[in-house]
Amino acid sequence: MKILIITPEGTGGNSSSAYLLRNLFSTYDKSSLAFLVHKSSHTQTYSACHTWKLSNFGFNFKKIEHSKMVSIKPNRFLDFLKSFSALKSLLNILLKISPLPTVPDHFLKWCKHEYRPDIIYTWLGSRQSASIVLQLKEQLNIPVAVHFMDDWLSGYSSFANINIFGIYQLKKMVDKILDDQTSLFVISHSMSVEYQKRFNKTAHVINTCVSNELLKILSKKDTKRSQDYQDVGVLRLTYIGRLLYGRDKVLQYLLNTVESNPYLANKIKISVYSQDRDLLKTNKDIDLLSIYSAPEDKDLPGIQRSTDFLLHIDGFAKEHITYFMHSSTGKFSLYLALARPLLCISPPELNTFNEFKRLNAGFYIDHLDPQRVNDTLMQCLNLSNQESSAIGLRMQAEAELLQCSAMQSRFISKIKAMISENLELTRQQPSPVKPGDGC
After folding, report:
1. What CA–CA distances, in Å, run from 176 to 7, 173, 418, 421, 422?
2. Above 70 in pLDDT, residue 224?
3. What's the CA gap between 48 and 115, in Å, rounded?
4. pLDDT category, 127, cuts 50, 70, 90?
5. Least C-beta-crowded within 10 Å: which of 233, 240, 355, 407?
6. pLDDT of amino acid 210
7. Cβ(29)–Cβ(161) under 8 Å?
8. Is the predicted pLDDT of residue 275 greater than 90, yes or no?
9. How far apart are CA 370 and CA 260, in angstroms?
10. Domain map of the chain by residue range?
11. Whole-prediction pTM value?
12. What is the widest separation between alpha-carbon atoms in the chain?
């Protein structure tokens, strides 16, 4: 069973989405996976035998040879332009109003005569990617599994005054893709309820998980707080993840609030592990803050030992609330596995905020106010070792319920059922196995 994966990035990124993608296909035969990657502004590696990269708004399809471990260099000129907020907004607008690409003949030929995928797995994510998926669905006559990570469709409404036809065009393409031959997957139960109403179609929940191996490494009876806290009473907060969608502004607000409080400034240390660390406009030499690259799995036990509280943040702007209303952070299961109390700074409307709050796993700030931040940080400082350990054990128990093996089994079973149900439509003739099909 061969899968063509059309997503913004491959399995080698450090984002929450790449983490989920990596866990979804970690045990799958790499020779039966092919990536068509349509967004890659950061260096990444791809663990599949076949990788194609889109560029120039989707008009250039380029095959990456020997892509078992291929590094894609970032477009530094494009990243430089995006460092200016006005130019970044302009680039985003151009993406929403640019012409739609046509899938080139050489890629179709590769799909039909060399790779021969049985199914397409995609996040969609834009007009361009929706157009490509729809063309491939019709040309290859194979089923599609669409997985929504967040409500990006609603984000297009803010551009109604710029490209009304583009929004109509996107809606028509999505409706065509989500036919009876397509299965709909979502990231949370909240999104499942919303999307079943929106599309009149069953929305299967495939959410974040933690690998069985990582959970075994991170699970331990000892949930003591960091040595710094035990020795000198300094509380260590750790943030892991992207700083996009206004998260950088919220983190900056937290830093500024702590810096302006002399007592807390001597009691709080914040560690940030992110590929977007350059977004922070603060002085990186301040004692309060340490900034690191996005961590790999092998780094997590050390992070666990040096952390007292995990930090989760979301943007408070209206567009960010709309975008993530029904979503679930990709690091939800990872934070559970790390088994540390949580400081969550997020709008209360968001599903992720309520998922964390349901666990009663720490403290929550639902609006940005200096007094509220100061008071909550004092609560974090005063949390007893016994209470901290109890929260850690409770989070470990929740993480046990989110092991990847069970989720992978559900997902692959559904994919196989889709192919079987559509066999007469999707595979007119049996395809002989050709030499060289593997890596």
Report:
1. 19, 5, 17, 19, 17
2. no
3. 13
4. confident
5. 233
6. 84
7. no
8. no
9. 10
10. 3-209+403-426, 213-400
11. 0.81
12. 73
Q: Which structure tokens are listed for 110?
A: 């590769």
Give ∠ CA 161-164-165 in degrees, rounded to 5.
Answer: 155
Higher pLDDT, 54 or 31: 31
Amino acid at 174: V
The answer to whether domain 3-209+403-426 and domain 213-400 are alike in fold is yes
pLDDT digits (tens, 9 = 90+) for 56-101: 544 566 776 544 333 334 444 445 554 555 555 555 555 555 678 8
Measured CA to CA, the distance from residue 437 to residue 31 in angstroms comes to: 7
CATH 3.40.50.800 fits 213-400, yes or no: no
Domain 3-209+403-426 superfamily per CATH: Glycogen Phosphorylase B; (3.40.50.2000)
Going 136 to 142 to 148 to 154, the CA torsion angle's sign is: positive
Contact 70, 51 (CB under 8 A): yes
How many residues are present in the chain? 439
pLDDT-derived band at 401 (thresholds 50, 70, 90) equals confident
**Amino acid identity, position 437:** D
Q: What is the mean pLDDT of residues 129-146?
A: 93
- Measured CA to CA, the distance from residue 188 to residue 205 in angstroms comes to 6
Q: Quickly state the pLDDT bin for 228 (edges 50, 70, 90).
A: low
Q: Count Cβ atoms within 10 A of the Cβ of residue 298 and give its class: 0-12 exposed, 13-18 middle, 19 or more buried.
A: exposed
Question: Using CA atoms, how far apart are residues 223 and 375, in angstroms rounded to an integer?
Answer: 25
* pLDDT value at 277 more than 70: yes
Pairing assessment for the beta strands 70-72 and 44-46 based on DSSP bridges: antiparallel
Q: How far is CA 66 from CA 29, 52, 303, in A?
A: 16, 11, 33
